From TrEMBL:
TM annotation in the entry: 31-52, 58-76
This protein's name: Integral membrane protein
Lineage: Bacteria, Bacillati, Actinomycetota, Actinomycetes, Kitasatosporales
Transmembrane keyword on record: yes
Keyword terms of this UniProt record: Membrane, Transmembrane, Transmembrane helix
Length: 89
């Protein structure tokens, strides 16, 4: 269980770092992004581990990745360029 938690935290940190590096203009502060990635991965690992039970480490890591990615996607802001269509007069 400790190795799953460590692996999940590393997966969340790597995903958050890659997201913060690729989309810095659409995200809030980097510390918030990194904390959300790690926290989401740990929560995802916990939920997956409780649902599947012990002995399913690869599935637990996939669950950690999925929840971390979902939480990081909630931090994204829309781009500045919004193309709005004008209503006909």
């Amino acid at each position: 269980m400790i190795l799953e938690a460590l692996g999940s935290a590393l997966i969340g940190l790597a995903l958050a770092w890659a997201t913060a590096r690729r989309l810095p203009h659409r995200l809030p502060a980097r510390t918030l992004v990194l904390a959300t990635g790690v926290g989401g991965a740990l929560i995802g690992a916990f939920i997956t581990h409780m649902a599947l039970g012990p002995g399913s480490s690869p599935a637990t890591l996939v669950g950690a990745l999925a929840v971390s990615a979902a939480l990081l996607s909630l931090l994204l802001r829309p781009t500045r360029r919004l193309h709005r269509r004008q209503a006909p007069a």
